[in-house]
TrEMBL record:
Record flagged with keyword Oxidoreductase: yes
PANTHER family, per database record: AMINOMETHYLTRANSFERASE (PTHR43757), AMINOMETHYLTRANSFERASE, MITOCHONDRIAL (PTHR43757:SF2)
Molecular functions (GO terms): sarcosine oxidase activity
Stated name of the protein: Sarcosine oxidase subunit alpha
Boundaries of every GCVT N-terminal domain copy: 620-885
GO biological process: tetrahydrofolate metabolic process
Pfam families on file: Fer2_4, GCV_T, GCV_T_C, Pyr_redox_2, SO_alpha_A3
Keywords (A to Z) from UniProt: Oxidoreductase
The keyword Secreted is assigned to this record: no
């Protein structure tokens, strides 16, 4: 049927005209009509194959009309607007839309890999786990990877804009169908703050695809009137094109709004594409509707086989009739409306095949009046036609899932199937709700939930329109009462016409047990068949969660929409148990895809995290600094001329070791702890004793969590009896500060202590090297920098260059070092002043790379790099320090466990390569054998390594099993298929006695 030659749209004026819209699919130009979905436009143009199945590459056509669609997954647009796995049924048509089929080459109609279907018998569920074992997975990987997956991930940066918003309301109503609309009218009229969401382009739900009348007007008109009334209410927020994707604790829900997707790349012009809403609400009403289940019979995946309700939607809403000779296959009354609606638009070649032996007299009379053929007590035994349905074979239903061997062939080009309805309860399940099986309707319905949520309409098993409307009104009235609001004028249930037969009467007929074909499909996208479930259960996978993973049924894009209930039913039949005993799988958000861009919002690039720059940034740039992202944007090295990172780093290390260097240490964490109980507090937090630290002195300290695992270290300074300055690593200062706050507020609120993170208030220039004292003494100060007056691990306050300063003698290089801190506004001036005054001594700036080399030479610990999630202070040789401390501290009890003091722990050691020129691989694992057979046991790994400029050999640090007792041993290090040998040595490689610190 051509796009402009369509059936009349129900509820529209007879002369209503819609503009034509041009689009392309698989490189061919087509025309659709304004208001179409891409799926409707493809069906109107006679496109029967839109994609290929995942594993066997079988041809697949449009089956559904909305979120339940498993086959019509397309690649939309290209370049910076490229988007894979877009449902054609949820994509509104816009001018110049470009779509392409997926999982096929060169296209969906002519797919070279369609040959896979011939090998279906040797490719059952989980065949790859059983067959791709020898010689190893990597042998097959090179063949599998290029053809695996559905759509192709975009290769260019996304040009579209996204946003995140927070919103609060009294009641969130999810679903804008009949139940949701009346619930919103009741709650809105009562004055509640209401948000009504729906994932379709328009409100109305299934009413848009039915030939019903409400209060005497066509259903679409009733929807328009209701939406217009809601728009007049200032307390009601309407959000169409919005998918509520997750339901979390305390009635917090996430919703993805498609703001301008329907305009396409050409219509966005820099406008916002999608928005993520974080909704906090007092109550929730779920009017999420239901999904029609497919029947299970041989070759039920052929193009031309659709859900009965989807056929009605395309006919009544879009004027698209997907076939001319139609068979309606069903086990319930609801599907009969599809045949009647098709007859109403002029189709005469109609046949209904019902597995039930008898139906109501009313249905029989109408079938007779319309001249529709009827086969009661029959089921489909097979499909004729390989690329598209050409006929069906039907046979008498004998009961217990068996069919007679005598078959009747009915010619057709469209099969509209229905096996009943499955309530859409994914959000209810995410909220923690429980379900029960409803025998008469053959579906699972909600029972109870601890959160403030009500489920109404078809989502609650109320499939009749009048019942949907009643439940929506009642739920809203109950919510109004729950929130203590005076009720408004009572809303009466709209009068319905044409929906009288909507009540289902289902006799379950899950699948054909005597089918001559094993190709009875349950999950259409992942090629999961009845035989796959049978195989899983034969191999003793009887849990529904195990069967799901063994077969991949209900995974990927389907997420159980069209497949889960049929899989449960087949499992129940095979096990002889009722469905309720088989159990159900849990739904995880998101139930339908949400773009990563929506979750990310604007937090990409430089907006990913707060970008912190040094106050002396300009001065560093003037020295040709090469910057890296360390939370702060910091200089890694300062290349001169054609130096690379290695050459620049070596030069900077030599400059510090032989003369003097300067380093911007401003990001170093600085936390002030002040109060009468400051000493008591810190002594409870840190591993070593800080209560006996004297004012003006500094001490290295280690911090552990409740499990005794090291989480940070740093130098702690006592400024006064009641005042400490705690230095934390730059990457951990925020969480250390929050940890201190938490303990003060939650564990020891009686302690008189205040903590304050002052990291950004103080800038720091560190001067390090044998000539560092010569440099700082050239600058005006009231501080005595002589070795006798200002020894290592001491602290002084005073003025420096005319401004207040805090100066600490501590070192991460192993050289005489002064860490000079001034107020941040003086940072650049201080940096430039020290650079000028040190010029005559050959002062050179050094970056993170040189600092890491020097601290590795000295064997200084870097928590997080030289430790793992199990490392405790015993592993770095602190056993005696712990024993000496009488007071308790966080993690002490955990460190008394035998396993925490065992002799086989991973302990910090130094390493030097047996071949001085062979670098030690960071991350390489210690193994016992020279020729290890993988997998093999790891005895630890290398944590830090470098080629030492001072020692001219490869050195490093590592955590090695029982390392402290293995000094002098040669160990094997395995990394990337290669072995390196190293000798275990003390951690301090350079100046092991620390004599240079006291120069």
């Amino acid at each position: 049927m051509k796009p402009l030659d369509r059936a009349p749209v129900f509820g529209s004026p007879a002369n209503a005209r819609r503009r034509t819209v041009k689009f392309t699919f698989d490189g061919r130009l087509y025309e659709g009509l304004e208001g179409d979905t891409l799926a409707a436009a493809l069906l109107a143009n006679g496109v029967d194959i839109v994609g290929r199945s995942f594993k066997l590459h079988r041809p697949r056509g449009i089956m559904g009309s909305h979120v339940e669609e498993p086959n019509g997954l397309l690649q939309l647009e290209s370049g910076q607007f490229d988007e894979p796995n877009v449902r054609a049924t949820m994509t509104p048509l816009y001018p110049d839309l470009r779509a392409a089929s997926q999982n096929s080459w060169p296209n969906a109609r002519h797919d070279v890999l369609g040959v896979m279907d011939r090998f279906a018998k040797v490719l059952p569920a989980s065949f790859y786990y059983k067959s791709m074992m020898w010689p190893n997975w990597h042998f097959y990987e090179r063949f599998v990877r290029p053809i695996a997956g559905l759509g192709k991930a975009p290769t260019l940066p996304d040009a579209q804009k996204y946003q995140k918003r927070n919103v609060h309301c009294d009641v969130l109503i999810v679903g804008g169908g009949p139940a949701g609309l009346v619930a919103a009218l009741v709650a809105g009229n009562a004055g509640l703050r209401v948000i009504l969401t729906d994932d379709r382009e328009q409100f109305g739900g299934t009413l848009l695809g039915e030939r019903f009348k409400l209060d005497g007007v066509p259903a679409p008109h009733w929807v328009e009137n209701s939406v217009a009334e809601l728009k007049q209410m200032p307390n009601v927020q309407l959000m169409p094109r919005t998918t509520v994707s997750g339901y979390y604790e305390n009635n917090v829900l996430a919703a993805a709004e498609r703001v301008s997707n329907h305009l396409g790349p050409g219509g966005q012009n820099g406008r916002l594409r999608e928005r993520l809403w974080r909704i906090r609400t007092s109550a929730v009403i779920l009017a999420t509707g239901s999904i029609e289940r497919p029947l299970v019979f041989a070759n039920n995946d052929r193009p031309g086989i659709m859900l009965a309700s989807a056929v009605r939607m395309y006919v009544n809403r879009f004027g698209v009739v997907p076939g001319s000779r139609v068979v309606v296959a069903t086990n319930n009354d609801d599907a009969y409306r599809t045949a009647f609606d098709l007859h109403s638009v002029g189709l005469k070649q109609l046949t209904i095949v019902d597995t039930r032996g008898r139906v109501s007299d009313d249905l029989l009379r109408e079938l007779q009046v319309r001249g529709i053929k009827h086969y009661a007590g029959y089921g489909i035994s097979d499909i004729k036609g390989k690329r598209k349905v050409t006929a069906v074979k039907i046979a008498r239903h004998l009961g217990d899932g068996t069919l007679s061997t005598e078959e009747i062939t009915v010619d057709c080009d469209l099969v509209a199937m229905s096996s009943g309805w499955t309530p859409t309860i994914h959000l209810y399940s995410q909220a923690g709700g429980t379900l029960q099986y409803k025998e008469g309707l053959a579906c699972l319905v909600p029972v109870a939930c601890s959160q403030s949520v009500r489920v109404v309409g078809a989502a609650n098993g109320a499939f009749a329109l009048v019942n949907c409307l009643e439940e929506g009104i009642q739920a809203a009235e109950a919510t109004v009462s729950q929130l203590g609001v005076a009720p408004a004028t009572k809303l009466t249930v709209p009068r319905t016409h044409g929906a009288e037969r909507e009540t289902l009467r289902i006799e379950p007929f899950w699948y054909t047990q005597t089918s001559r074909s094993d190709k009875q499909w349950l999950d259409f996208q992942y090629d999961v068949k009845v035989s796959d479930v049978e195989l899983a259960m034969r191999e003793n996978f009887v849990s529904v969660e195990h069967v799901k993973r063994y077969t991949t049924g209900g995974m990927s894009v389907d997420q159980g929409k069209s497949s889960n209930f049929n899989i449960l039913a087949v499992m129940a039949e095979l096990s002889g148990q009722p469905i309720v005993k088989v159990g159900t799988t849990r739904f995880r958000p998101p139930y339908q895809p949400v773009t990563i861009g929506t979750f990310a919002g604007s937090t990409v690039g430089q907006m990913y995290a707060p970008w912190q720059t040094l106050h002396a940034q300009v001065s560093h740039a003037a020295s040709n600094a090469h910057f890296g992202d360390y939370g702060w944007r910091r200089p890694e090295y300062y290349p001169r001329g054609n130096e690379d990172v290695v050459a620049a780093t070596r030069r900077e290390v030599f400059a510090v070791r032989s003369g003097v260097g300067m380093f911007d240490g401003s990001p170093l964490g600085k936390i002030e702890v002040k109060g009468p109980d400051a000493a008591t507090f810190l002594n409870r937090v840190y591993v070593n004793n800080l209560a006996n630290l004297k004012p003006g002195f500094a001490r290295y300290a280690v911090l552990t969590n409740e499990n005794g695992v090291m989480i940070d270290d740093g130098v702690v300074v006592r400024l006064a009896d009641d005042h400490y300055l705690v230095h934390a690593t730059s990457g951990a200062v925020s969480r250390v500060f929050l940890m201190l706050e938490e303990y003060l507020q939650c564990e020891w609120p009686d302690l008189r202590v205040f903590v304050n993170n002052v990291t950004t208030q103080w800038a720091n220039v560190t001067v390090s090297g044998p000539k560092s004292r010569d440099v700082v003494q050239r600058i005006e100060s009231d501080i005595d920098f002589s070795a006798e007056s200002f020894p290592h691990m001491h602290f002084r306050t005073g003025t420096f260059a005319g401004v207040p300063a805090r100066i600490l003698r501590a070192s991460f290089t192993g050289e005489v070092t002064y860490e000079i801190s001034v107020l941040s506004r003086y940072s650049k001036s201080l940096w430039d002043l020290i650079a000028r005054e040190g010029e005559s001594f050959g002062i050179a700036p050094y970056g993170i790379e040189a600092l890491e080399v020097m601290r590795t030479e000295k064997g200084y610990l870097h928590v997080g790099a030289d430790t793992d999630g199990n490392s405790n202070p015993h592993d770095i040789g602190w056993a005696k320090i712990i024993e000496k401390k009488a007071d308790d501290f966080i993690g002490r009890r955990s460190m008394q466990r035998p396993v925490d003091k065992g002799s086989d722990r991973l302990e910090l050691v130094g390493l030097e390569s047996v071949d001085p020129k062979a670098p030690l691989p960071v991350g390489g694992h210690f193994v016992d054998d020279l020729n290890p057979k993988m997998p093999t046991a790891s005895k630890g790994y290398v944590t830090s390594a470098c080629i030492s400029p001072m020692l001219n050999k490869a050195i490093g640090l590592g955590i090695l099993r029982n390392g402290a007792s293995r000094m002098g041993e040669v160990v094997n290090i395995y990394a990337k298929g290669k072995l390196t040998t190293a000798r275990v040595v003390p951690t301090a490689h350079f100046d092991p006695k620390g004599e240079r610190l006291n120069g």
